[in-house]
Specification:
By secondary structure, this protein is mainly α. About 60% of the residues lie in helices and about 5% in strands. It folds into two domains: about 5-280, Fido-like domain (Fic-like fold, Orthogonal Bundle), CATH 1.10.3290; about 290-345, Arc Repressor Mutant, subunit A (Orthogonal Bundle), CATH 1.10.10.10. The longest helix is centred in the C-terminal third of the chain and has 24 residues, at about 260-280.
Length: about 350
């Protein structure tokens, strides 16, 4: 069976890109701890927005969708699911909430991973939740003519429980020894998890939930305030490309996870940058119009009302709309299009 020894990562020579990404994230992490102490009131709204975005984006990657209004209602527990997609969205919401609230108390063990997977499907009629795969699965690709072929064959069902135990044991040993930087170890673990593909369904969503859990447990809590899943969804094609590069010769133990490590580090670094930007924009002493004015100053080219609302989540929709209207009257902003096609541009007359 494929063996796992994460201690070997301590002897690997990383290139300047990996080392640079790790160093920058460490620097942002240090500053984030200061923000958490200085501006606690600002953070609750960021958390609320990030949870909704994470739930929507991670499910969307797998083709599980509903409307933005329904997502918000489901995430705020103001409605019940209407179909299978919404059942799975609610399951994701609950697991994400569990991680947010209790990550310090969720050990990295197969039994806990199974429980999280169980909860992912607790609203679903599918009877697969909390069970490792019972049949061989595979990762397929479709060519330009629509023909599907097997791109990667994961471990067989009988090998799966032992493999998950092995990656958890190796991860915990290396984390406890502090021999390898967690920022390198976490993507390596997730890459192996995806290559094992331990479940009949839900592997992608579980991998992203585990990424959040591992980052939080290692002190990188930026995903609480900025959706990492949303950033992955927006770069989905690259996400799949680096996974394909990183699983080459995985069964033989000869794969190189570096492309996936660089990708995940880039996502985390981008989240930290966004976090600082949004916290600095959210000065609650400023009137709504001035907060919107500052947010617009950060945008280049086209932008939408939704994008401005993301930057200033402490302001309600009506206040953002009123501020945009006033800024149009001042000649600071121009409006283009109608209805859902509406977008705005700066005039640089601020």
């Amino acid at each position: 069976m494929r063996s796992f020894d994460y201690a070997a990562l301590a002897n690997k020579k990383w290139d300047s890109e990996v080392l640079g990404l790790v160093a920058q994230i460490h620097e942002y992490k240090g500053r984030q701890e200061l923000y958490l102490k200085q501006k606690p009131a600002v953070l609750d709204k960021l958390t609320e927005v990030a949870k909704i975005q994470s739930t929507e984006a991670s499910n969307k990657i797998e083709g599980i969708v509903t409307t933005s209004t329904r997502i918000q209602q489901l995430c705020s527990e103001k409605t019940t699911p209407r179909n299978r997609d919404e059942e799975e969205i609610m399951g994701y919401r609950d697991v994400l909430n569990t991680i947010h609230e209790s990550y310090e108390y969720i050990p990295i063990r197969a039994s806990y991973i199974l429980q999280l997977h169980r909860d992912l499907y607790k609203y679903s009629e599918k009877s697969i939740g909390g069970r490792f795969k019972s049949t061989q699965n595979f990762i397929a690709e479709t060519d330009a003519d629509g023909n599907q072929s097997v791109r990667f064959m994961p471990l067989a069902p009988y090998e799966t429980p032992g493999a998950i135990d092995a990656i958890c044991e190796s991860f915990n040993n290396v984390i406890d020894s502090c021999a390898v930087d967690p920022l390198v170890l976490i993507p390596t673990f997730i890459n192996d998890f995806l290559c094992i593909h331990p479940f009949n369904d839900g592997n992608g969503r579980m991998s992203r939930l585990l990424t959040t859990l591992l980052l939080y447990r290692c002190g990188y809590v930026v995903g609480r305030y900025i959706s990492i899943e949303s950033k992955i969804e927006k770069t989905k094609s690259k996400y799949y490309d680096v996974l394909e590069q990183s699983d080459h010769e995985w069964l033989e133990g000869k794969n190189d996870s570096t492309p996936f490590i660089k990708y995940i580090l880039g996502i985390v670094l981008s989240a930290y940058r966004d976090f600082e930007n949004r916290v600095n924009l959210m000065d609650e002493k400023l009137p709504a119009i001035e907060q919107v004015r500052k947010a617009i100053g950060e945008k280049i080219g086209k932008f939408t009302k939704s994008e401005i609302m993301e930057l200033v989540p402490s302001i309600g929709k009506a206040s953002v709309e009123n501020a945009l209207k006033k800024l149009i009257e001042e000649g600071v902003v121009e409006r283009h299009g109608k209805g859902k096609a509406t977008f705005y541009t700066r005039t640089d007359k601020q």
